[in-house]
Amino acid sequence: MEQEKKTPILKIEDLKISFTQYDRGMHQTELPVIRSLDVEVCAGEMVAVVGSSGSGKSLLAHGVMGVLPYNASMEGRITYRGEALTEERLRKLRGREIVLVPQSIAYLNPLMKIGSQICKGKKDEAKKRKLRDIFTRYHLKPEVEELYPFELSGGMNRRILISTALIEEPLLVIADEPTPGLDLRMAKRAMEHFRELADLGAAVLVITHDLELALETADRVAVFYAGTTVEEARVSDFASEETLRHPYTKALWRAMPKNGFQFIRGSQPYVKDLPEGCPFAPRCDRCTEKCREGKIPFREVRGGRVRCLDAEERQGEA
Amino acid sequence: MDGRWMICLLKNLLRVFLLLTAVSIVTFWLMKSSPVDPLQANVGQAALGSMSREQVAKLEEYWGVHTPPVEQYLSWAKDFVRGDMGISLLYRQPVTRVIGAKLANSLFLMIFAWVISGILGFALGAAAGMNQGKPVDKLVKGYCLLVSSTPAFWLALLLLMVFGVWLKWFPIGLSVPIGMEAEGVTLADRLYHAVLPALTLSITGVSNIALHTREKMIDICGSDYMLFARMRGERGWRLFKHYGFRNVLLPAITLHFASISEIFGGSVLVEQVFSYPGLGQAAVAAGLGSDLPLLMAITIVSALFVFGGNMVANILYGVVDPRIRRGGAAK
Predict the structure, then answer these.
(1) Which of A14, A206, B42, B198 sits CB 3.0–4.6 Å from B112 for a disulfide?
(2) Nearest CA-CA distance, residue B229 and chain A, Å
(3) How close does chain A come to B141, measured CA to CA in Å?
């Protein structure tokens, strides 16, 4: 059942984002919030980047969109449709082919009406017609166009935010935490909206902390731990613990309510105190001396990718 | 809706009443406890020495030296409430007429300075804030810091020296040409005489407005909605027009109306330097000459202006900001 290899819409390889900080006077320190992130999304596919809070997920979105703060620096390769996504290219594509759906309506201009905000102030007929289509699709009344963000009801927020993406011709949609503070039913609806975008042919990258929801809607899941992608797996791999590859993913799996609600000791290390080698090493029961030295390569194992030295040995057992 | 307006109006009336009462009491008290002796200041030591006791007593009565302060204040307040501001002791004319003439002179200066500093300050501040850290920003910031650390009177002297004395482009003082009859003075003459003082007030006013606008703009540029707008491909002029401008306009309006007090304060010094016969100069003259009715009236007029400015800002805020306009109506 190996999926045919097409060129991914977005391919991120070994991405590193670090902040320059001043601590104690003029002493500068580098804070690598994202250390090595690898993920790829194809057209028509929905990939979820799952990680707990503080793992640097949102920065990923800002990094791809090219709006990192001035004291942040980014390394690594980002490829969009087979070509490097340079700053110049991004400037042309951002907000047209590449769109981001923000977390909340705090990302909307408080003093601009919803209608013209979604259309970015453009007033041509084509845009207006498209907006009406989108509103019908999401069951939003035409009056909503004339409202200001503060007048929206909670139920409308998600649909308005996703409308900002749909008004363009997006090939790549990045959703930054689309389900914060939503109840389960609403959160599911939100995720389904993104599933629909993928089914329409866009490549969708959802950044979330909710593994269960991601498993319900996405095609693949990239697990993110302390600034590193530890595993990239198909959703079907989450059917059992054995088909998963990384000890952290397995721990996540065991922590899911239906799989026994077991937790592991310790907590995700803070960026400043990251260990050499595997970031999960201090909490891993299969950790060896080798895990603590140097960078662990991200390699293909059983149709997915994993950043663990142990995974290969266990391949036979699976 | 109507009821709400009435309550709002009554509240503001009560506020202005309390403000004026407090301001007049404080002014009166300050005047009374000032070491300036009205007789010595206005008649002079030498002239006083050569006067008879009766003459001195008459003068003392005229300047109200022996009247108990409370009684004096109350009689002033009683007349003031009836609309009688009294007679200026220095000018020997009704205070209303003195203030009317002075205000007409000053108003031009202040309006000019207020408008220029508002527009220029807003433009400079917004440009700097949108381009934080870039050369434009550094230039504007440098200019503003330089100007705001320059005393207004010193700047006035400098302009006077350069443009009035050396280059002889503008007159060195007063509001009309010297030695000309009042009927012969044209509007052009008046404008010509007001240029330098108005310029001084504008230059100092700009820096304040620009620095505050810049600060607000930087906040806005760091906001989530600006970040999202940039992610949607908005940049340059469009980013400013749709996102920056609208959001910075609100605080800028409040700030600008609140800055009326500063222009008022600045005009006192600037008018002094240019011997410009405006309200500011009259205030100084009244203060130094113990002209109680005039000083009280000027203080109250100024307080009214500042209060009015702040109130207009409040009202405009409600008109411009949909969160207040519509949010209030919805509830």
Answers:
(1) B198
(2) 8
(3) 20
Pick B322's closest partner by Cβ from A96, A100, A111. Answer: A111
What is the per-residue pLDDT across B116-136, written as a single tens digit (0 to 9) for each?
889 999 999 999 999 988 899
* Residue A111 belongs to a domain: no
Which two tokens mark A311?
A: 């995974």
Q: How far is A193 from chain B (nearest CA, A)?
A: 19
Strands A220-225 and A203-208, by their bridges, are unpaired
CA distance A104 to chain B (A): 10
Any chain B CB within 8 A of the CB of A110? Answer: yes
State the pTM of this model: 0.78
B243 touches chain A (CB under 8 A): yes
How many C-beta atoms lie closer than 10 Å to residue A125's C-beta?
7
Q: Do B231 and A151 touch (CB under 8 A)?
A: no
In a domain, B146, yes or no: yes
B 47-106 → A contacts, CB under 8 A: none
CATH number for the domain including B236?
A: 1.10.3720.10
Touching check for B234 and chain A: CB below 8 Å?
Answer: yes
Domain contains B176: yes
Contact between chains at B224 and A107 (C-beta distance less than 8 A): yes
A53 domain-assigned = yes
Contact B133 A70 (CB under 8 A): yes
Residue B304 maps to a domain = yes
Do B273 and B160 form a contact (C-beta atoms < 8 A)? yes
The single-letter DSSP state of residue A276 is S
Task: Give me the number of domains chain B comprises.
Answer: 1
B199-253 confidence digits (pLDDT tens): 888 888 888 889 999 999 999 988 999 989 988 988 888 888 888 898 998 888 8
Q: What is the CATH number for A80?
A: 3.40.50.300
Buried b (16+ CB within 10 A) or exposed e, A18-50: bbeeeeeeeeeeebbbbbbbbbbbbbbbbbbbb
Residue B144 gets the label, from left (phi > 0), alpha (psi -120 to 50) or beta, of alpha
Q: Are A79 and A85 a contacting pair, CB within 8 Å?
A: yes
Domain span including residue A189: 10-97+168-315
Q: Do A106 and B327 touch (CB under 8 A)?
A: no
Give residue B331's pLDDT band: very low, low, confident or very high (50, 70, 90): very low
Which residues in A lie closer than 8 A to residue B330 (C-beta atoms)? 151
Output the six-digit token pair for A52. 């707990």
Residues of the domain holding B308: 103-330
Backbone torsion region of residue B133, taken as left when φ is above 0, otherwise alpha when ψ lies between -120 and 50, otherwise beta = left
Residue A221 lies in a domain: yes
Number of domains in chain A: 1
* Measured distance CA(B79)–CA(A217) in Å, rounded: 81
Residue A42 forms part of a structural domain:
yes
Buried b (16+ CB within 10 A) or exposed e, A128-161: eebbeebbeebebeeebbebbbebbeeebbbbbb
